[in-house]
Amino acid sequence: MELFAARNVTKNFANHQALDKVTISVPEKSIYGLLGPNGAGKTTLIRIVNQILAPDTGEILLNGRKLRSDDIQLIGYMPEERGLYKKMKVGEQALYFGRLKGLDKKEAMKRLKYWFEKFEITAWWDKKVEELSKGMQQKIQFIITILHEPELLIFDEPFSGFDPINTNLLKNEITSLRERGATIIFSTHNMGSVEELCDHITLINNARVIISGPVAGIRDQFKLDIYRISFQGDPEKLHDILNDDYEVLDMKSSSSEHTARIKLHRKSTDNALISLLLPHFHITSFTEEIPGMNDIFIDLVNKERQTVN
Amino acid sequence: MQNKSLLIIAREYLSRVRKKTFIIMTLLGPILFAAIVIGPAWFATMEDREERIIAVIDSSKLFIDKIPETEYLKFEYLENTSVEHLREDFDEAPYYAVLYIAHIVASTPSAVQLMSDRQPSLNIRMHIANALEKELERQKLAAWEIENIDDILSSIKTSVNIRTIIWQDDGGEKESHSELAMIVGYLGGFLIYFFIFLFGAQVMRGVIEEKSSRVIEIIVSSVKPFQLMLGKIVGIGLVGLTQFLLWVILSATLIIMGQQIFFSDLGTPSSETIVAEDIFSSSTLQPSEPIENDSHDKFMEVFASISAINFGVMLGTFLFYFLGGYLLYASLFAAIGSAVDSETDTQQFMLPITIPLILSIIVMMNAIMNPEGAVAFWFSMIPLTSPVIMMARIPFGIPVWEVMLSAGLLIAAFIFTTWLAGRIYRTGILMYGKKVNYREIWKWLRYNS
Predict the structure, then answer these.
(1) Do the beta carbons of residue A125 and residue A89 sit within 8 Å?
(2) Phi, psi values for residue B101, rounded to 5°
């Protein structure tokens, strides 16, 4: 089931086009990565979803119907540039934002109490935001974002500024939010977190969608048929055994074993390769080299740049 | 939606009212105001209470025992001594100053010298000059040897006091006191100018704070930018009203208390006269021997004219023009705040706002001198200047239709500027790191969100 969709969304500013017929579809209860270099149009798209901006053409759907103004209660948004009133007390501020999102005072207090206890930050309640460290402020920001229990959560670079412990805490929270039924959109260029958390991604560059789909599928699509084989035996024999369908890209040797990267050409398969090698070597490992999202990202953006030039 | 606007207003209001600076301003304002009002009056009475003796060397012998003494000013007429001699041990002598009158005084008025080791007060100098003039005039007249000259002199003594009467449309009459109207008008106009600047700038600073701390993005994902802008303007406007009302109450309390403390020992009506005159006609520098009755009459007259000013109407119009002027300018201040990244970038955009405000103050000087003039009329119609100018004119009694027209124009104008500012604001608050100029803002105005 699709929770959220953008259909052919175009947005022009005075001097440039920020979005050009962008279409994305976010499945319910998924963690969806919105990727792209700086200035690609991610923030504009997010602002359109938050109804801060209106699209020139195209439509935004939530739960299969057009986005309405009171849908902001269903959306939680954590902007990349975190922002809190510096001179305002933490608790008061969290309460204010919760109520702005439509919670009544009593309910907001109850939930805040729960989260403050969970994150062990009850002692901060009466502190001013400016007295807190950046990581502490991030925690407050996170609580504010999710307090009204939105169906759709949008995190813009959620892990920037977090130390490893807090990053882990946040990842766990995000995963458990999904388990409780929330759908999450990540906007990021931190590919590590994308591979770890996201089910689906869309890559935007120069206002257009370049690629979109499940993470596993995209990685499959970009695999280069390169295998990494570690073996024991005489490495010279390798060239005799392998015909033109196989290309040894490089080889590293240590005292105990050799590791070769072999690219498969034409119709050769990994099974055929193994059966060729098995009679001659003692194979200790055999893995396919699957490109990381990082490589795919850089690869695609560079290709785009070349075609533009 | 309604609820959220109230939330925003409450936050804007409470976060400012609870600030230390607000509390300090609220307490300091009336103390300063009371000091301005009471201070000079108090000092004036303080000075008079010190007894001063002036040595008089009168070589003309015309003025012996002729200079009237007051409670605190005594004259000692010395003979067989010289100015040089007095000067030698002036430090030990009990004299405040030495008055030397040369014998040619009748023909050369500048032949009188007042000498001291300090600057003698203006009051004393004028007192002496007055007394000498009168005595010389009397003696010159006496030289004509007219019979009963003293009786004639006392019978021709006259005091002219012009009362200003304004004919009302309903056939009635109203007595006015134009000095008082000028002062009330000036104060009203100036207060409005001051409040617009003070609280308009607060709106601008608030917008910049939200923009630079990026909190804006969270808020506008919950409420409409226009809602936030209006909430901020209304919230800060209420802060202004609160401050004003607290100032009025505290100032009144302080002035009354001050009167009780500083002037209670005098206990006569004349003590209050000093205060009343000081506040409303600043005539303390006239040292002409106050005749008890005259001063009492004058006091009653000032008192009557104060009560003739309709403070209900004054307060009502003040509140209207304060709010109207504030709303007109505050939205422009908000638009400026939204267009810049930090307060230092506001200069170029502040100019179009500060010019009409400063112009208001300049024109106001003209308007309180000539409240019916064409300049005063037109500037009290133009919405950018009308809050200050109309406020300055109101105490003089302005035709109702003029006030209505000016008020209507002001309302129309602030609706327009709020709309205009809203369009700049909603684009500006999300623009970062861009040097914005007027052309850019013009683009935002025409741009559909």
Answers:
(1) yes
(2) -115, 115
**Does the ipTM exceed 0.90?**
no
Closest CB to A96: pick one of B11, B209, B449.
B11
The pLDDT value recorded for residue B299 is: 55
Check residues B238 and B346 and name the one with the higher pLDDT. B238
pLDDT at B224 over 80: yes
Task: Say whether both A122 and A240 belong to one domain.
Answer: no
Q: Kindly report, residue by residue over B28-43, the tens digit of the pLDDT.
A: 888 887 777 667 667 7
Asked if the C-beta of A166 comes within 8 angstroms of chain B's C-beta atoms, the answer is: no
What is the structure's pLDDT at B283? 40
Neighbours of B443 (CB within 10 A): 14
With a pLDDT cut of 70, the percent of chain A lying above it is: 99
Count the neighbouring beta carbons within 10 Å of the beta carbon of residue B338.
28
- Alpha-carbon gap, residue B230 to B264, rounded angstroms: 49
Q: How many CB atoms lie within 10 A of CB B210?
A: 22
- Whether residues A147 and A259 share a domain: the answer is no
Query: Diameter of chain B by CA atoms?
Result: 98
Quickly list DSSP for A172-218.
HHHHHHHHTT-EEEEEES-HHHHHHH-SEEEEEETTEEEEEEEHHHH
For chain B, how many structural domains are there in total? 2
B443 contacts chain A (CB < 8 A): yes
Owning domain of residue B35 = 2-43+177-446
- Rounded to whole angstroms, the Cα distance separating B335 from B211 reads 12
pLDDT tens digits, A239-272: 888 877 888 888 888 888 888 888 888 777 888 8
The reply to whether A302 falls in a domain is no
Q: pLDDT tier at B46 (50, 70, 90 boundaries)?
A: low
Interface test with B, best of A68, A85, A87 (most B CBs within 10 A): A85
Residue A194 placed within a domain: yes
Domain count, chain A: 2
Same domain membership, residue A179 and residue A112? yes
Q: Is the pLDDT of residue B15 over 70?
A: yes
pLDDT digits (tens, 9 = 90+) for A85-143: 988 999 999 999 999 988 889 999 999 999 999 888 899 899 999 898 888 888 899 99
| Contact between chains at B213 and A88 (C-beta distance less than 8 A) | no
B434 in contact with A at a CB cutoff of 8 Å?
no
Q: Which of A14, A53, A100 sits opposite B222 (nearest CB)?
A: A100
Is A94's Cβ below 8 Å from some Cβ in B? Answer: no
Residues A156 and A257 in one domain: no
Chain B CA closest to residue A55: B449
Phi-psi region of B259 (alpha: psi -120 to 50; beta: other; left: phi over 0): alpha
| Residue B42 vs residue B89, higher pLDDT | B89
Domain coverage including residue A265: 224-289
pLDDT at B354 over 80: yes
Looking at the structure, tell me whether residues A180 and A281 fall in a common domain. no
Backbone angles phi, psi at B169, to 5 degrees: -60, -30
- Return the CATH number at A241: 3.30.70
Q: How far is B449 from chain A (nearest CA, A)?
A: 6
CATH code of the domain in which A207 resides: 3.40.50.300
Number of Cβ within a 10 Å radius of residue A177: 19
Give dist(CA A77, CA A75) in Å, integer: 7
pLDDT over threshold 70, residue B263: no
- Shared domain for B237 and B139, answered yes or no, is no
Residues B414, B287 share a domain: yes
